[in-house]
């Protein structure tokens, strides 16, 4: 039952975000905002596919242990693409709200992203071991979480300041994504059921994409 339900969810998710991403990218014409939204969404789908497809195969076959290498590689690729996802989301904020004097905050966001990506490639992460170090799972996610909180705050501040209705809840979707993700990083190895929080986390990302797509269609 787990294999069936999880696979159905993953297929619907990957198909949906990939479709919406290409719709925005191909239909953006000269609109840079929707081109960025399209690229960001396609990256989300393709990046997650590297982890979710081996995950689905493992559920229907001999279990995660047999596919430890592919699952670990997929997690590494997804971690990199999610970092780039937030960099693009930051640029969407900058482009949409037309904020001036953002050089310092741009530098901070990029510095955190670089630190995060460098940490991802430390051998101590032990990506291909299903029982990898929890401590390094925390270390590599600290700059990622700070970057997410900064972008969350920026969307909240600007949407409140101009009473924006388009991305009014973008900050909340980002908050939910991290709120569901942090317990997985901390406790999923001890309590596997906590891993189910990745489903509402994924839904939060779909919500982020949907806000952009809704404005694209309008």
Structural summary, described in words:
The protein is mostly helical and 218 residues long. The protein has a single domain (2-217), classed as Rhopdopsin 7-helix transmembrane proteins (Up-down Bundle), CATH 1.20.1070.10. 78% of the residues lie in helices and 0% in strands. The chain contains 7 helices and no strands. The mean pLDDT is 92.
Quickly describe the structure:
By secondary structure, this protein is mainly α. The protein is built from 7 helices and no strands.
Explain the layout of strands and helices.
Layout: H1 2-27, H2 32-60, H3 68-97, H4 103-120, H5 134-161, H6 170-187, H7 198-217
Helix pairs in contact: 1-2, 1-7, 2-3, 3-4, 3-5, 4-5, 5-6, 6-7
Question: What's the architecture, going by CATH?
Answer: Up-down Bundle
The major beta sheet can be summarized as: none
Sheet/helix structural class? mainly alpha
CATH-derived topology: Rhopdopsin 7-helix transmembrane proteins
The name of the CATH superfamily reads Rhodopsin 7-helix transmembrane proteins
Q: What labels describe this entry?
A:
globular, Rhopdopsin 7-helix transmembrane proteins, single chain, 218 residues, 78% helix, mainly alpha
